[in-house]
## 1
Amino acid sequence: MSRMNVTLRPMPSAELSASLARIRERYIADQVSSGMEQQAAERIASQQLDELFPNGQPAPGQHMFRVDVDGLPVGELWIGVGPDGDPSRWWVWGVEVEQTARGQGIGRRAMRLAEEEARAHGATELGLNVFGSNTVARSLYESLGYETTAIRMRLPL
């Protein structure tokens, strides 16, 4: 098997609005499945995306990439200054590898490239959120050295 060349390239403007729509829908679905009311999830998603992508374009400090393998797009990555606004503390706002390309180390390489990109912009830390039920992603992040900083729990009644 040949070695895959995984790279990041800036998200083309023509693809950005469709990508933001997918991000919004995934965010809403994840929040609702974790117990948030649909309307609240929709409101928060809209507020956050409007703030971080005014007029549909990345705000300063936000970066959208396509994840390419051998020049072909297989996913996307959104990284940038984190929720606290500290330019040294970056955040993985979203990472997605197409279903057919999963399990080949592409996500792992994309995360390493995210670290390099953040470091190149002066970041000293890279954080992220992951749902507890997403054991595959949690395993990947733990294997990359990410540490658990908070655990939120609930009991459905």
## 2
Amino acid sequence: MFLSTYENRLDKKGRVSVPASFRSYLSNMGYNGVICYPSFNNPSIEACPQSRIEKLSDSIDSLNPFEEKRDIFATSVLADSTNLQFDGEGRISISSKLLEHAKIKQTMLFVGQGKTFQIWEPKLFEKFKTQARKKANLNRASLKWESQFKKEGK
């Protein structure tokens, strides 16, 4: 899983090192890179393994091919997705388009989200995190751990 939060900076050539634990997780899944696309919900970059973007693509493909929703999702997710390969030192080059979407200049946070991770400008993430914690506290009863574990037989 992608866990924790790491801060890294762009180098002089515009590359950034992906946290070792994130690279290790992707490598164990058979990937030497990561898929990135602009977040719908936040000024951040969504990052996931190839299998995750394939699931999103399958979900989009399940929509009626003649409905506007299908084109909207395909354009919003797939058209702006980029497959970024790790170089020999575990770095990726994030496009200026993605960096601009996330308002990242030099420093960025890699934020674990379980099966995915996000890349944020640090100050924007701190504001988001404060709001998220307040909302999570208000909505904590929504997490139904016991019933979920019963379904899974645990």
